[in-house]
Amino acid sequence: VAAAMRLGAVLSALRPALPLLLGLSLGCSLSLLRASWSHGAAEERCLAPGPPAPPARGAPPEAAEGKPGPGHEDFRPRIVPYYRDPNKPYKKVLRTRYIQTELGFHERLFVAVLTSKATLNTLAVAVNKTVAHHFPRLLYFTGLRSAKVPHGMVLVAHGDERPIWLMYETMNYIHQHFGSDYDWFYIMQDDTYAQAEQVKALVTHLSINQDVYLGRAEEFIGGDEQARYCHGGFGYLLSRSLLLKLHPHLDSCRNEILSVRPDEWLGRCIIDFLGITCVSQLQGQHYHTYELAKNTEPEKEEEEDFQAALAVHPVSDMTLMYRLHKQFSRIQLDRVYQEIQDLQMQIRNLTALTPAGEAGVTWPVGINAPFLPKSRFEVISWDYFTEQHLFSCPDGSPKCELSGASKADVSEIIESAVEQLNRLYQPLLRFSKRQLLNGYRRFDPTRGMEYTLDLLLEAATQKGHSHVLAKRVSLVRPLSKVEIIPMPYVTEATRVQLVLPLTVQDLDFVANFLDMFAMNTLDTHDNALLTLLFIYHPYDAQRVGQVDVFAGVKAMVGELEKRYAEVKIPWISVKTEVPSQVKLMDIVSKKHPVDTLFFLASVWTEINMEFLNRCRMNTISNWQVFFPVHFQEFNPALVYRGEQTASSNTDFLRDGHFDRHSFAEACFYNSDYMTARTKLAADILDRDEVLESMEVFDVFLHYSGLHLFRAVEPGLVQKYTLRSCNPRLSEELYHRCVLSNLEGLASRSHLAMALFEQEQANST
């Protein structure tokens, strides 16, 4: 019986793996059988008598014998041996900054707009406001420039208004500055309206290996019937290969070709020296254009040629340019909505064929299904709101006034809900909003912002009857297309200047800080320096000749400098009763170059290379400052209650929390701080007492236009300690310090367990 029970237990344990074992056995058996069959067939072919079989039709003799043909030499792998000349000195290979540069990639499209001094502030501005933000790079070229260049426009002036000279200088400038960076060059006039998205889509469907001269083909007056030039008013597209071949002949074209129109001159130059004529169709792509008549109403244009046009010409004034942009935007929007409807219909049809059937269709169709939490800790909570108040406030208060972006969001979503209801039920019913009874919203990272609204509506029929009813609607504001935000280039080689303010209360923790600094930066030769800031109380400063409260710290610094001969750790002594963070940084800032990257640390910080690298990468000069949220360990006496403490090897798993009340740590450049500090000084004038209520974070928040990057930092860990809060600081700073101490004691579960044990002990 015992043996049978053991056998049953073994079989039950192996039962989940039986399908896998059977599948592996069957697969191995079939592979062995197939290998034996193919081996036997190969032997029979080798031993079969008679002449060899003829090669396949069209195949070279070498291919019939199993050898690569004459056209396959380039596909054979070759091992290039590395050889270094011993007579030449070794030179370090410098890698490019971006991988696309090393691989030879180019940007897609460069756009040049030909303008003049007379139309620079009118038509050129209209072009810049309508299509400039759609093109990756756009420059304006003119002969003479006005005294003031419109904002947001990059202008190149050649000093001569002659049309042929302007075209000649423009082509030279494009080749010299952008010829090696872009694949396509689109040239247009300022009286041309171009559909930017259509032009960008066109170049994605054309091969960059051909010489392309694409536009609206026009005949030369009295010239060859076969030759064509591209009309400049409708824009034209040049490939990089054509520009490179054309550049050596531009001087000859300027001296030999006579023409009044710059587009004819360029077309004749390309035809005479390269033998390439303008085409309106290439590689299955059409360059559609539309010529505007006088007194044209863009809103009434319904012709297919107009709707399919990539470029429209001539545009006589700014108002017409804006009206064209509005009309084409509406046409493009209607196309997008129609594509969405077609895709949703296809999704419904395909989903009906799946095992889930029509029940598998998500709402809205094509949007990701709502996030399904796997535990109660992953549940996304809903925020309740009305038209006047929000009941989930950023500062933690239970109720706050609905204002700003939140108020605009609620108003827009209510209007959209009523509009959708009218679209569904008209003309039978007409809805109007009476009141928002209840509103709920939550952000789902997988799909976007979700809303549930209880609306009190008044429904009116066609006969004039009305009725008040309550209706619940659900809406989704889906996440739009994700875009990569361009950021300035930074490296991990930047030197970090650590600044450590020290008071008398911090003396017990300095030794641990210096040990961690030596182990993680000096021993690893990290590019980081340390400056100590000794903050003396006025009473201690008077007795510094007899008793220096920081003498022990200075002795530790001396020992470090002896151990590391190449390291110097300077210190700065400051006398003050109120150690304002801004006043201290003012002193440090004046003693360092403007390009210094500061890391403002605290004595409880454990410095490591991982965080210093993130400090370098997240801090960008004249762009972004970094305020990390450190990980604060809980009080071990409350967390472990006499048990063995967590091992130091568990790193992030140690019990604690991210201290969002602390702004003591910061990474920023000295130049950015000095700029913000100058604006602060102009605002407060001589009221230095204001600085006592401010931190460095407040200076950047209110007096700089930089990005403030505030994020949790798991690499910045602080051990538990009860910090002393200076009551002479501002009320807000003192309150934040007290909250940091209270929330840093332990988690709610740990505190509840401690109270429970205390009550148990008192009861006994």
Automatic annotation (TrEMBL):
<keyword id="KW-1133">Transmembrane helix</keyword>
<dbReference type="GO" id="GO:0032580">
    <property type="term" value="C:Golgi cisterna membrane"/>
</dbReference>
<keyword id="KW-0333">Golgi apparatus</keyword>
<comment type="similarity">
    <text>Belongs to the chondroitin N-acetylgalactosaminyltransferase family.</text>
</comment>
<protein>
    <recommendedName>
        <fullName>Hexosyltransferase</fullName>
        <ecNumber>2.4.1.-</ecNumber>
    </recommendedName>
</protein>
<dbReference type="Pfam" id="PF05679">
    <property type="entry name" value="CHGN"/>
</dbReference>
<dbReference type="GO" id="GO:0050510">
    <property type="term" value="F:N-acetylgalactosaminyl-proteoglycan 3-beta-glucuronosyltransferase activity"/>
</dbReference>
<keyword id="KW-0325">Glycoprotein</keyword>
<keyword id="KW-0735">Signal-anchor</keyword>
<feature type="region of interest" description="Disordered">
    <location>
        <begin position="46"/>
        <end position="78"/>
    </location>
</feature>
<keyword id="KW-0808">Transferase</keyword>
<dbReference type="GO" id="GO:0047238">
    <property type="term" value="F:glucuronosyl-N-acetylgalactosaminyl-proteoglycan 4-beta-N-acetylgalactosaminyltransferase activity"/>
</dbReference>
<dbReference type="InterPro" id="IPR051227">
    <property type="entry name" value="CS_glycosyltransferase"/>
</dbReference>
<dbReference type="InterPro" id="IPR008428">
    <property type="entry name" value="Chond_GalNAc"/>
</dbReference>
<keyword id="KW-0812">Transmembrane</keyword>
<feature type="compositionally biased region" description="Pro residues">
    <location>
        <begin position="49"/>
        <end position="58"/>
    </location>
</feature>
<keyword id="KW-0472">Membrane</keyword>
